[in-house]
Specification:
The protein has about 325 residues and is mostly beta strands. The chain folds into 2 domains: about 5-210, Sandwich (Jelly Rolls); about 215-310, Jelly Rolls, CATH 2.60.120. About 10% of the residues lie in helices and about 35% in strands. Strand 7 and strand 8 (about 100-105) form a beta hairpin. The longest helix has 8 residues, at about 150-155.
Length: about 325
């Protein structure tokens, strides 16, 4: 693989192109300053003009959300996995029909495998602009977002309507629903009964892994964070490994699977054939199957990254054991 071909599979943090109207709550006060990014795959954006950095998906999607302090993402649900890790800042995640069933605070490097099928939201509770990185299960990321009823109702009061075609229409810009397209129906009380309301005590031990715990466990080899035998036992159609400075040797890495490297801390050298590039925090690199590469920290100090690997498991509901 040529250096240019590999560069085409790299999305630099500084090159990320945001969308500020990606979802139905884009005009709702308190959520109107968020930025959404689609890095690999189209994700679940409802905006027709969402920029996609890498179209081809390896069985999952990669995205990100950037938000200033006190900005929140409204309550929604997914049909497949949604996994977040905190790249920058301090974040509160909350869940349940009204966001009151439970909550957890995540610091930089922490990872949250949110149980499929619950309403979830999140907000930046830090003092600076924050960024969280997301892995979504499935090539089509489950076909879209399921919003809590109050989110759709609030959005309508601020000019945004979601069509049943999954697209947003902004009345402030003179848009209206096309002929034959009805508004997205609001979930009924009966349908809402199927969305679980787990407590914090039920969720945190089984779905949250802390950065410094993973650093300690990765002193000799990569740590499987999400997988059949991972810290968080699940089979959502991909596995996630955590790598620190002490996890690797100079032994070449090679896999029949797609490997997506997501920089967390420090700088990493990725060498293949006669070429090399550097992976920095917030960068995403999609390594194709069967390419042999050597991965090493390129500077002294703290270094960590996440590696996402596709599996043969179907993307679907959380499969914990």
């Amino acid at each position: 693989m040529t250096p240019q071909e590999m560069q085409n599979r790299m999305v630099r943090y500084g090159d990320l192109i945001p969308c500020r109207t990606a979802f139905i709550d884009a005009h709702t006060p308190g959520s109107d300053q968020k930025e959404n990014f689609t890095i690999i795959g189209a994700g679940v954006s409802e905006a027709a003009d969402q920029h996609v950095h890498i179209q081809d998906t390896p069985g999952f999607n990669i995205g990100a959300a950037g938000q200033p302090p006190k900005c929140r993402n409204s309550l929604h649900s997914h049909r497949t996995a949604e996994v977040f890790f905190v790249l920058k800042g301090r974040w509160r995640f909350f869940w349940g029909r009204h966001g009151t069933a439970g909550e957890v605070t995540l610091e930089e490097g922490d990872i949250f495998n949110i149980p499929t099928g619950i309403f979830r939201g999140f907000e930046n509770i830090g003092s600076d602009y924050g960024m969280i990185m997301a892995i979504l299960g499935g090539d089509d990321a489950g076909g879209g977002v399921i919003w809590a009823p109050q989110v759709i109702e609030d959005a309508g009061a601020h000019g945004l309507v979601l069509g049943e075609d999954g697209r947003l229409y902004d009345s402030k810009k003179g848009h209206s629903l096309p002929s034959g397209v009805a508004p997205m129906p609001v979930l009924t009380d009966e349908q809402l009964q199927s969305f679980p309301e787990p407590s914090t005590k039920e969720v945190v031990p089984n779905f949250v892994a802390r950065y410094w715990d993973m650093v300690a466990l990765s002193d000799k080899q990569p740590v499987q964070v999400i997988g059949e035998s991972g810290i968080l036992r699940d089979r959502p159609g991909f596995e996630i490994e955590f790598l620190s400075r002490h996890s690797l040797s100079v032994t070449p890495q090679q896999s029949d699977r797609h490997n997506v490297l997501m920089g967390m801390k420090g700088h990493w050298s990725v060498r293949w054939e006669e070429s090399e590039l550097t992976l920095s925090p917030g960068d995403t690199l999609a390594i194709p199957p069967r390419l042999s590469y050597v991965l090493t920290p390129s500077m002294s100090g703290e270094a960590a990254l996440y590696r996402v690997i596709n599996t043969d498991d179907l993307a679907g509901v959380t499969k914990t054991s």
